[in-house]
Amino acid sequence: MLRPVAAFAAIALLAAGCGRSGTDNEEPSEGGGAKSRAVSADFGDLKNVCGPGSPTKAPEQGVTKDAIDVGVFSDVGFTKNPELEDAAKVFTSWCNELGGIKGRKLVPHIRDTKMLEVRQRMLESCKQDFALVGGSAALDGMGTKDRLSCLLPDFPAQVSMVQNNGSDLQLTQTGGPSYNRYQGYWSWLLKSAYPRSKGSVGIISGDSPVTKALVAQGMESMKAMGATIAYNDLYPAAGVSDWTPYAQSIKSKGVKGLVFYGDFTSLAKLEQILTGINYKLDWIDANNNAYLPQFIKLAGPSLKFQNNFADLSGIHPLETASDSPATKKVLDLYDKYAPDADLTLNALRGFTGWLLFAKAAGSCGDDLTRRCVYDAARKETAWTAGGLQAPVDLSKNDVPLDCFNIEKATPDGWKPADFKPNKGPYSCGAPTYKFTGGYGKPLTLTDVGKSMNDVK
């Protein structure tokens, strides 16, 4: 998954720099001014994802014989980053041009939380939508109880808060919440690539409730690998005017490996200071929110001096799309339906959610119900979204990720690191670690007085 520090990035007012203004509440779903050319219903190795049909029933809220109402959560009103809206527009335009889901057109409703209005948007979604697909909200846990109370299935791009991560009726594709999603990645850093760094690891994070659990989990995992945490610091959510004291502290502590839980703009500024005082770390975990060309530009010359890495957690890299028909397909669809939009890692995650939903919903035929679409998605034991990602077992709600893939930031852009993949672009059979600390638990149907018997 995209590491949930994207939540902090929004809170800190630092995600807006790479976004654009938001759009209307409902996205057009017919392809707009797209170029006229034949459209294939296949997506990578998925066949006939969308297509015509002759449905006659309206079996569920949000489902008629003609359309399916789908909610897409986003913080776009705050972040000004329309990546999830763009993904929804591209997928639904493509799918609807083909005939929709067995003849039912997808109607996406953008549920813009403006950061703090998560519960309001969830209550609106509960009254209109059939399911949530391809969305994300930094403070998503504020709406989880209401989502479960109205029995709304969720196919998210990204999850953030403990209450929501791995909650019931949710189909996440990023590993179970009880496990460290970065165990394989960090094992490579500490045991293979830079073993001497194990004796002096540092962690710095934005001061936000969202990151507190992440830091605690990260420290537990690192220590279990034999690492010594030599430095642990917070920086204010309002931003930092001068990163020099932080850089000097990192240097004085002799930090060799640094895990950064925050926004890429702040990281770029910190690295400029570290490079300016001639202090080179063995590695920096930039987190995958930095997997953007904007970070490359902001970090500038420091990328020649510092070693920046990010784990994509099994998503195929964009820069090697020519090796992946599915990734190339997404790029082609963006070129047709949203040529001015940026394709980001979070948008790719959104696409995996849309594809899972479309395949599951299509299998239900005319009798499209929430129970049918949820059960169908849960049957996927090696889900790859047509080749967008490494296989993920969705048949269980809490299993560790099996594969990872590591990127390195260079002055010429992000490139696959030399981590010795063993399955295409991925390293699979990754080591796992289950947390032992108490960090809270995801909400269940039982918590709201319901069970799967209530899901029809």
What do these coordinates show?
This protein is an alpha/beta fold and 456 residues long. The protein has two domains: 6-175 and 321-380, Response regulator (Rossmann fold), CATH 3.40.50; 183-312 and 402-428, Rossmann fold, CATH 3.40.50. It contains 13 helices and 13 strands. The chain has helices at residues 6-11, 76-79, 83-98, 118-128, 144-149, 183-193, 209-224, 244-252, 264-276, 293-299, 325-337, 345-364, 370-378, and strands at residues 67-74, 105-112, 131-133, 154-155, 201-206, 229-235, 257-261, 283-285, 308-311, 403-404, 406-410, 413-416, 427-428. Strands 6-5-7-8-9-11-12 form a seven-stranded mixed sheet, sandwiched between helices. Strands 2-1-3-4 form a four-stranded parallel sheet. Strands 10-13 form a two-stranded antiparallel ribbon. Helix 3 (83-98) packs parallel to helix 12 (345-364) and helix 12 (345-364) packs across helix 13. It is globular, with a radius of gyration of 21 Å.
